[in-house]
Write a structure and sequence with these properties.
By secondary structure, the protein is mainly α. It has one domain (about 25-245). The protein contains 10 helices and 2 strands. The chain has helices at about 10-15, 30-50, 55, 65-85, 90-120, 135-140, 145-155, 165-190, 195-200, 200-230; strands at about 230-235, 240-245. Strands 1-2 form a two-stranded antiparallel ribbon. A hairpin with a 2-residue loop joins strand 1 and strand 2. Helix 5 (about 90-120) packs antiparallel against helix 7 and helix 7 (about 145-155) runs parallel beside helix 10. It is globular, with a radius of gyration of 20 Å. It starts with 7 loop residues before the first helix and ends with a strand.
Length: about 250
């Protein structure tokens, strides 16, 4: 049976998308960025165990918090990225890029909501007794967003997702989380975020719907920023793609 030889151009495209700033997967800079991110995420999870509070013994543990769910997704994204770097396996690289479509917009949403609400009243997002010192606060609510943006803008191909699928994904995540925190509330008798206790059911529904819309806007905005930073692909003629600046 005859085997089909791939052209050097196709091999190059498989190894690195034309719009990627840096080679990824790679055992060099890409692996270094993923290791730095994972070190920060590990510090955050260690902090939860090293500084226990009543949340550690409650139903749902710290996964009651959207922050920790987002941190887990960011960690999984970077684990896949690092494994792809170490093995140069492009299936793992593809899985990392697919997961980042969820983890990067979610972390952007988490940072925007947390710091926005905190600027209004810190006790809307965390009770006084659970306030964090600045280093762990940044590791939970800023570093994951920052590292995922670096991964997106430097180490990833452009996203193909459009606004309507992004909205569907965001709504599914928002209402799945609503169901989860209500389950935790039925077991614990308290909500993880004080803001939830100040709202009635309809207001909470509005909050989650609004959060889904913000996450959708985050996805669309990140896709736009990628085009501004890296350019966009433009079909010059059938079968050929040309890189142009957005």
């Amino acid at each position: 049976m005859a085997t089909t030889q791939r052209s050097p151009a196709i091999d190059a495209l498989i190894r690195r998308h034309p719009l990627q700033r840096m080679q990824s997967p790679s055992r060099g800079q890409s692996a270094f960025i993923h290791i730095i991110g994972l070190a920060s995420f590990a510090y955050s999870f260690h902090y939860l165990s090293a500084n226990p509070n009543h949340i550690n013994q409650s139903y749902g543990w710290h996964f009651q918090y959207l922050t920790i769910i987002g941190l887990f997704l960011a960690t999984t994204t970077f684990v896949l990225g690092l494994l792809a770097d170490l093995t140069l396996n492009h299936q793992l690289f593809l899985a990392k890029n697919l997961l980042s479509v969820t983890s990067a917009p979610m972390e952007t949403l988490i940072s925007a909501l947390y710091w926005g609400l905190r600027a209004i009243d810190p006790e809307l997002v965390v009770p006084k007794e659970l306030e964090l010192p600045l280093p762990p606060d940044l590791s939970f609510h800023f570093v994951p967003t920052f590292m995922l943006l670096i991964d997106l803008l430097l180490l990833s191909p452009p996203w193909a997702i459009s606004a309507v699928p992004a909205l569907g994904l965001s709504l599914a995540i928002a209402f799945a989380y609503w169901f989860w925190i209500e389950l935790c509330y039925s077991n614990n008798g308290f909500y993880p975020y004080p803001l939830f206790a100040l709202l009635d059911t309809q207001q909470r529904m509005g909050l989650f719907l609004g959060s889904a819309l913000v996450m959708t806007a985050s996805t669309v905005t990140l896709k736009w920023v990628y085009g501004k930073v890296n350019g966009i692909e433009h079909a010059s003629r059938p079968g050929r793609m040309q890189k142009v600046k957005a």
